[in-house]
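Troubleshooting log. The previous structure file for this entry was overwritten by mistake, so regenerating from the original sequence record. Sequence copied from the archived sheet and checked twice against the printout by T.R.
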Amino acid sequence: MARRTLVDQASVRVATALFSVGYAWPSSQIFGRTILAGHNAREIALTYDDGPNDPYTLRLLELLARHNVRATFFLIGRFVRQRPQIARQIRDSGHLLGNHTMTHPVLLGLSPMEIREQLAGCNASIEDATGEPVRFFRPPHGARSPGVLRTAAELGLIPVMWNVTGRDWTPLPPEQILRRLEQKVRINQRRKTGSNILLHDGGQAHLGVDRGPTLEATRRILESWPQGEHEFVTVEKWVNKSSAPTVGF
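Regenerated output below.
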């Protein structure tokens, strides 16, 4: 009996570890396929979560326009409801818009109905503001499960994770954000894979979050990374292509 108990406990620990990896590790494909990046090491997708957020989203759009670069913006539905004109400006500037839920919860703590409400509500907010359907979805905190991915698929949403982050949700100076990004991109290039960069133009708690360091880090990326050596793309470039399971943290 004691031996059986030990085996059962070990099985629970293994299952718990697999579940933790599956729902939180960006590169995990345990619970279902998600977009990470393509196999062209020159390709870089700049992606921004938690907007729209004035004035920083608008300043970011101006910066990207000066360098003729398209990015991907994963928007929070309740902020789109408050700032629909910014969502329209993102669309009008040629960028890709994605679903980042209605209120940015950890989806694993919600019922199936609540998960659907979060995703469908954000879709409706973006579509009401822009008049265009939403195709892509990034789960808040990267937290996903078979149920989350199943609901996304039922709503026609393609899940997107990341394989590079500057951890700009913490109070870091732009130099440190940029240093982290450069290190991770170099690792991806050695592995012959593209880089899907997670940054933030807003904050989940409220509008008006200071994203000056992210804006400055983006400026330095666009001015110092040779465009001949890098190709800036949106995540739609990687649909139906193999994703490289590289480490994202």
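Residues 4-22, 242-249 have pLDDT under 50 and may be disordered. Archived copy saved in two places this time.
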